[in-house]
């Protein structure tokens, strides 16, 4: 399940790179003080370059149904990626992202160890989840990023759509940009087929909902 979360995340990153010259609006911290300065007079060309994932402000979470009555939630904590943005021609932007499957965290040690084992992710054989973009499309302010998501030895295309935030200048005097998106994948498509039945009900659902909150910093 976590793998799927990772994939989504990677794709989002790509879209973030493609944030064309939108003028930012100041973000307000508690007490009404400005937490970031608006990026004034930002042009598409100013966004061209390499962007690094801001790990302190990026979160990839996922959820899956348990017994059909509630959701089990989790996340990945060890990841990295490179976003190469072409602000003038966003369709030429790209992203490569890697997640360490061993970093899966659902808040329960026994469950996490089960997920790392052969019945699920088989971390010893498939230690990473990777995403490599193959296409970036812009429709108005919305972006659609398609890429190859590889997890558990299976590679499948994934497409995410989102509207990137306006770029902001933060305390580090660098441009920051972000995006939020949600998608759903079927874990069975990636060979994550373990399950059990209790009175005819599956213990673990097949659909994985992925929520991504992503921030990147221009280098």
By oligomeric state, this entry counts as: single chain
How many strands in all?
Answer: 16
Envelope shape: elongated
Helix content: 10-25%
Return Rg in Å. Answer: 18 Å
Q: Which consecutive residue ranges, at least 5 long each, have pLDDT under 50?
A: 2-36
Structural class: mainly beta
- Amount of beta strand: over 45%
Description:
The protein has 2 helices and 16 strands. It is mostly beta strands and 219 residues long. The protein is 11% helix and 47% strand. The two termini are 32 Å apart. The protein is elongated. Mean pLDDT is 80; it is low at 2-36.
Please give a handful of descriptors for the protein shown:
disordered N terminus
Short structural summary:
By secondary structure, the protein is mainly beta.
SSE layout:
Layout: H1 2-17, E1 27-28, E2 34-38, E3 49-53, E4 59-66, E5 70-76, E6 79-85, E7 94-100, E8 104-105, H2 109-116, E9 128-139, E10 142-151, E11 154-162, E12 168-169, E13 175-186, E14 197-198, E15 201-202, E16 207-218
Antiparallel strand pairs: 1-2, 2-12, 3-6, 3-16, 4-5, 4-16, 5-8, 6-7, 7-9, 9-10, 10-11, 12-13, 13-16, 14-15
């Amino acid at each position: 399940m976590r793998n799927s979360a990772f994939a989504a995340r990677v794709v989002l990153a790509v879209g973030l790179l493609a944030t064309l010259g939108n003028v930012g609006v100041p973000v307000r911290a508690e007490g009404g003080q400005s937490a970031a300065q608006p990026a004034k007079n930002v042009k598409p060309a100013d966004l061209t370059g390499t962007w690094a994932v801001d790990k302190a402000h990026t979160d990839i979470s996922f959820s899956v149904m348990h017994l059909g009555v509630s959701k089990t939630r989790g996340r990945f904590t060890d990841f990295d990626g490179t976003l190469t943005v072409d602000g003038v021609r966003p369709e030429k932007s790209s992203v490569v992202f890697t997640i360490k499957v061993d970093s899966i965290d659902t808040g329960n040690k026994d469950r996490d160890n089960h997920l790392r084992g052969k019945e699920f992710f088989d971390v010893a054989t498939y230690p990473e989840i990777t995403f490599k973009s193959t296409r970036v499309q812009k429709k108005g302010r919305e972006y659609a990023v398609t890429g190859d998501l590889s997890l558990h030895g299976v590679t499948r295309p994934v497409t995410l759509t989102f509207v990137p935030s306006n770029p902001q200048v933060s305390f580090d005097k660098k441009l920051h940009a972000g995006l939020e998106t949600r998608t759903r994948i079927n874990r069975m498509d990636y060979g994550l087929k373990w399950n059990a039945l209790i009175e005819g009900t599956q213990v673990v659902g097949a659909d994985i909902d992925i929520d991504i909150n992503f921030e990147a910093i221009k280098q």
